[in-house]
Amino acid sequence: MTSGIGRRRSAARDEGGAAYLARREEIIRAAGTVFRERGFRGTRITDIAEAVGMDRASIYYYAGNKDELFQTAVGDAVERNCLRAEEILAGPGTPAEKLRTLVTELMVSYAEYYPYLYLYIQEDLAAFAERSQWTRTMARYNKRYENVVVAIVEDGMADGSFRRTGEPWVVAYGVIGMVAWSNRWFDPSTSPVEAAEIGRSYADTIVSGLTTGGHQ
């Protein structure tokens, strides 16, 4: 059963249009900053309200709880990255070209959705309320993304453009982990180097290490 405030929130979303959605996005961004500073468990709705200059009651006009804010931001990013990866795999280009694009765009997504994707990496998913369905959905998207990277590496090894340095899945997990490690130091608001340039540097390093002569 939907609560009274839930119905009002739904109506406001429908009637408020762009202004409502813009304010909600502002709250999601502010919540991300607080989550980054305090961790998910240590953050209260009151903290988010203070960060965005609202009272606690007004926050509920835009989101049911902190889980909803987190899950909305992370879910959108994870789904988009997965679908884009599958598009890259199915599209034109050599395995090296596909891997370059994939790595660069993954790094860019960390900046676009900062800090939510990093928080997703760092947090224990068991901490989230209403965890079962959301966690299962995220796990499926993660697996699909991993499968794409494995497939690109396998294709490169199969056509001889990538050296067979190990099992494709081991190489693929290393690629994903290399970009994910940027959570330890990258902040798009302070970094002197843009995410796209970092992504291209990572991609160059990975592809150069994998390719055989003349296939880059």
From TrEMBL:
Membrane-spanning segments: none
Gene3D superfamilies, per the entry: Homeodomain-like, Tetracycline Repressor, domain 2
Residues of the HTH tetR-type domain: 21-81
DNA-binding span(s): 44-63
Pfam families: TetR_C_24, TetR_N
Keyword Transcription regulation applies: yes
InterPro entries from the UniProt entry: Homeodomain-like_sf (IPR009057), HTH-type_TetR-like_transc_reg (IPR050109), HTH_TetR (IPR001647), KstR2_TetR_C (IPR041490), Tet_transcr_reg_TetR-rel_C_sf (IPR036271)
Keyword Transcription regulation among UniProt keywords: yes
Keywords: DNA-binding, Transcription, Transcription regulation
Name of this chain's protein: TetR/AcrR family transcriptional regulator
Biological classification of the source: Bacteria, Bacillati, Actinomycetota, Actinomycetes, Pseudonocardiales
